[in-house]
Amino acid sequence: MTAIAQTSGEYIHNPTGAIEEEFGEGNVTGVIDAENGSVKTLNGKLDKEITAVDLVDRCYEFFKLHKDLFGLDNPREELKVISVNWQFLGYKFRQFYDGIQVSHHRIKLAFTIHDKTTLTSFSGEIATDVKKSSSSPAISEDETIQIAIDAYVAQKK
């Protein structure tokens, strides 16, 4: 059952009540669920219980503290920083599984400009069904080479 909760005067989509449980009532001003059931955006005061000083460490601590909400086991292995926007204090991450990049998903975290430590925004989509997939190749290296050779020969005919 989907519940619509009111927090700080704005309505949020909060299907399980987990958002207020995670961040406290009134701390989150916007939530949208992605089609896969995971959180897609969060806005508000998101740094509850974060103690790290370094901003990248604060990002990883955020994901670690809320790993159940995002479906992560080990955020430092599953998410890698791909870029930093110093003007807006934003960090972009890509998701990986067994060292392989997961689709084209980008996850963004942003901090406030005035104090440069308060985490205020999460957006992106974390693939939650990736752990059901195998990272082992479906065919051997020799089969791969033979397919490439056959395709090349067929193209030359």
What order do the helices and strands come in, and which of them pair?
Elements: E1 4-7, E2 10-13, H1 18-23, E3 28-33, E4 39-44, H2 55-65, H3 67-70, H4 75-78, E5 79-85, E6 90-97, E7 100-111, E8 119-124, H5 141-156
Antiparallel strand pairs: 1-2, 3-4, 4-8, 5-6, 6-7, 7-8
Low-confidence segments, given as residue ranges, are: 1-12
| Count of individual beta strands | 8
Describe the global form.
Answer: elongated
- Spatial separation of the terminal alpha carbons: 59 Å
Indicate the structural class. Answer: alpha+beta
Radius of gyration computed on alpha carbons? 20 Å
* Main sheet attributes: strand count, strand direction, barrel closure: 6 strands, antiparallel
Mean pLDDT over all positions: 79
Provide the β-strand percentage band: 25-35%
Largest sheet strand order: 3-4-8-7-6-5
Helix count equals 5
* H/E series: EEHEEHHHEEEEH
Estimate the helix proportion, in percent: 25-40%
Q: What labels would you give this structure?
A:
157 residues, alpha+beta, 6-stranded antiparallel sheet, two-stranded antiparallel sheet, 5 helices, 26% helix, 34% strand, elongated, disordered N terminus
Q: Mind explaining what this structure looks like?
A:
With 157 residues, the protein is an alpha+beta fold. 26% of the residues lie in helices and 34% in strands. It has helices at residues 18-23, 55-65, 67-70, 75-78, 141-156, and strands at 4-7, 10-13, 28-33, 39-44, 79-85, 90-97, 100-111, 119-124. The protein has a six-stranded antiparallel β-sheet with strand order 3-4-8-7-6-5. A two-stranded antiparallel sheet has the order 1-2. A hairpin with a 2-residue loop joins strand 1 and strand 2. It is elongated, with a radius of gyration of 20 Å. The N and C termini lie far apart (59 Å).
